[in-house]
Design goal:
- The chain is built from 2 helices and no strands.
- It has 66 residues and is mainly α.
- The chain has a domain of 34 residues.
- The N and C termini lie far apart (51 Å).
């Protein structure tokens, strides 16, 4: 999200790479995209949770088989 002016300076400073800082920056430069960001964040968290739950299930199944 580097927005460069003609003079080589950023129009908006690059935010820290944290969800809150990114959300705050997006609220300034493109507030209409906040719902998209939230959906993307929710999907990413859900996929990570599913991978972790699947790993737990795989481990449990392996224990039962042995």
């Amino acid at each position: 999200m580097s927005t460069q002016a003609d003079h080589g300076r950023e129009l908006v400073p690059r935010p820290e790479q944290t969800p809150e800082a990114l959300r705050s920056a997006l609220a300034v430069v493109a507030p209409g995209r906040l719902p998209e960001m939230q959906r993307t964040k929710d999907e990413a968290f859900a996929q990570k949770a599913l991978r972790e739950l699947s790993a737990v299930l795989d481990e449990a199944m392996q224990t039962v088989r042995t």
